[in-house]
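Below is one such protein, fold included:
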Amino acid sequence: MVFAIRGFSSKAFVEDNFDQPKNKPYYTSKKYLWAKTCRFYSLDSISATLTSADYMKPVVALTYFLCNQKKSLFGLERSEDPELRRMYQIAARSFEPYTKKEEENYDNIIDTMKNTSNQFKKIANCIDELKKNKSSDAIVVKN
């Protein structure tokens, strides 16, 4: 199995190098390969299946998932498909440790930004106090 995530360079390339068996969501190579059989899946190869079927078969859902490269189901045309939803659930579970770490990093960055902002506010307040008092014992006197 080969997933052509970015598709192929042109229709002419596909026509010269691949055949698509009737009613199948994949291409086969016209050339001799090291493997006995090799199936090439792309958004183009599954397009007929997507328009004719009410639900996706697992390999079609996997192709759709991999080729669309989306982080979530939002915005996907077939987002209601149960098999595709299962793919996203598996992916979410697989990446959960990484997303938690990213959330922790994000929270730490927000805390640092808040602390920095508070420090600048304190500095600004000190400068305002010095300007109000204009006393001779001020640290910074502007001439």
Notes: The longest strand covers residues 27-29.
